[in-house]
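User: Hello! My lab partner asked me to get a predicted holo structure for this protein. The small molecule is adenosine-5'-triphosphate, SMILES included with the sequence. Please write out the structure tokens.
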Amino acid sequence: MEDFRPRSFDEVVGQAEAVRRLRRISAAVRRGLIVPPSLLLAGPPGTGKTTLVRALAREILGDEYSNSFSEVKAFQDRSARRVEQIILESRKAPMRGAPFRIIFFDEAESLPPDSIDALRPAMEGEGGATLYVLACNDLERLSPALRSRCTLLTLDPLTTEDMRNLIGRALERTSFSLDEGEVASIVERSNGVPREAIKLLLEEAAAWRRRPDPGTAPSS
Ligand SMILES: Nc1ncnc2c1ncn2[C@@H]1O[C@H](COP(=O)(O)OP(=O)(O)OP(=O)(O)O)[C@@H](O)[C@H]1O
Ligand SMILES: [Mg+2]
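Assistant: Hello! Below are the structure tokens for the protein in complex with adenosine-5'-triphosphate.
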């Protein structure tokens, strides 16, 4: 699955509005014009939130991506104590070549209330210029305190045309092919969700490998 994840904005399919805004933000950062406000990417699972955040971090941080970008996932310790530590660590001067550090809190709707309290001042830029990026699946469940401190970018399921394009690009990275009917079936079953389409494509690939090689099949 990871092999199919776009690394740059150019490789992202659809999500034109979010990509346009993220490109503008990263261009302004690189020209030294702004430290962006905290960002919030909202959209259904598998539509490109993590992908876009990583692409943004690569654009802004370049070679310092691995030193200056960190992800805080829902399964990790996100107690108030740990979040305070993360905030403190992010205030260390970034590596040469990086304008600031970027911290990505995934599944922000599941952050505990006291961790949110710890984050609030930091997200407003108190104490340093770290860029905080949040992702959530369900805006309704996100703390209004976090929501109101972020610039919102909404991701939607992709159109049928974009899904065909996505599958076409993914197939170019494999050594197998699908006929039109098989592509149409994946488009239909994945309901505009790229992760779902890649998963179905990998299932087809597994089945394809199991097909007997006509050259070696025993004749009856
Ligand atoms: N817009 C897109 N263009 C191309 N590929 C995409 C796009 N969105 C998602 N994908 C594919 O789907 C996979 C999952 O996407 P991603 O991890 O970015 O989803 P997510 O929105 O972060 O999901 P979750 O809410 O579960 O964290 C990626 O590895 C990539 O292969
Ligand atoms: Mg994600």
